[in-house]
Amino acid sequence: MLAKLLNEDTVRVLVECGEWKTALRAGGNLLVSKNYLKEEYIDAIIANHQKLGPYMVVAPGIVLAHARPEDGVLQLSLSLITLKYPVAFGNDINDPVALVITLGATDHNSHLEALVQLMELLMKKEDVEKIMNANHQEEVLQIIRQYSRVT
User: Fold this and answer.
1) With 90 as the cut, is the pLDDT of residue 115 above it?
2) From 49, 66, 108, 111, active-site residue
3) Is 136 part of the annotated catalytic residue set?
4) Which of 75, 94, 102, 115 lies in disulfide reach of 27, CB 3.0 to 4.6 Å?
């Protein structure tokens, strides 16, 4: 499941972004380009961050960007980008962010299995560090495949 969503089309490494908005757009645009999300969804993610603060920074160096399904999700989707230079999101504990994961969920349930597999990966500090330090997309995809299973 996880490897179906995070693949050659939706994973990028060493992306250069000057600040948090650019980082959120970079992750979201991978999914917009595949017609999985509408552009408005990225705008909603940014608006949520501005309104509610950096709650999406879920762990040291990691942001899980998301908004509501009705904000422009066309298909269940995930993207993952690593940042060449980590950026601040305004989270005193978990900044700076080096890993941007964007989730587009079509409802409140269909994404849960993929999210479980993603969380299993994110709880493995060693593998997260390998992803953050990867120089090539294939390095990241190999790690993702280890946590992916069909349900």
Assistant:
1) no
2) 66
3) no
4) 102
